[in-house]
Amino acid sequence: MLASCRHELRSCLWDLRTRTFEERDLTEALTQTLAPHLTGIQTHVQFSVPRSRLSESTVHTILKIVRELAVNALRHGHAHSIRIVGEMTDGTLHFSVSDDGCGFDVAAVPGPRDGHFGLQGIRERLRKYGGTMTIDATASGTRVAVSMPHVLEREEGT
C-alpha cells in the first residue's frame, strides 16, 4: 500500500510541476501526463471533449484513470501501442484506452488483497460520478471503456 501511495504522490507532483492541470486542451494534457510513463511506446490520444466544460475534479479524475490504464497496458500487458479516445455524448463522457498487449483474464485480476490497487482505485473514482468501466481483454489486446454521466460543469456557449 505504501508503494502505491508513493507512486500516486510522485504522479501528482509530476502533474503539478509540468502544469498539466493548467492545459486547456485535454488531448495535450493527457499526452503530457503519459509522457514520462510511456517512453518508447506508440501512443495516440484524441480526446474530443471541451476542457472548459469540465470541473477541475473531473479533469483530475480523467487524468488519473487514463494514466493508470495506460501504465497497466505497458507494465502488465507489454503493449507496444496504446490508443486513447474520448468524446461527450448527451452529457455523458465516454473514453477508452486500448492496447495491443497480451491481455489478461478479467475474472482472475489480482486486487487490493494481493497488493494491486489500480483497477479498484478506478472503480472508486468512477463511483463518485455514477460511472462505469467495462474491460474487454483478449490475447491480442485489451480495451477498457469508461462512461461518466453528468460531468458537465456548464453548457456549451455559456
Major sheet size, sense and barrel closure: 5 strands, mixed
Mean pLDDT figure: 84
Helix content percent band: 25-40%
Structural class: alpha+beta
| β-sheet strand percentage | 25-35%
**H/E series, N to C?**
HHEHEEHEE
Number of strands: 5
CA gyration radius, whole angstroms: 15 Å
Q: Counting H and I runs of at least 4 residues, what is the number of helices?
A: 4
Instruction: Report the span from N to C terminus.
Output: 43 Å
Shape: globular
**Quaternary arrangement of the chains shown?**
single chain
In order across it, which strands form the biggest sheet?
Answer: 1-2-3-5-4
Poorly predicted residue ranges: none
How do the strands and helices of this protein lay out in sequence?
Elements: H1 2-18, H2 26-34, E1 42-48, H3 56-75, E2 81-89, E3 92-99, H4 118-127, E4 132-138, E5 141-149
Parallel strand pairs: 1-2
Antiparallel strand pairs: 2-3, 3-5, 4-5
Helix pairs in contact: 2-3, 3-4
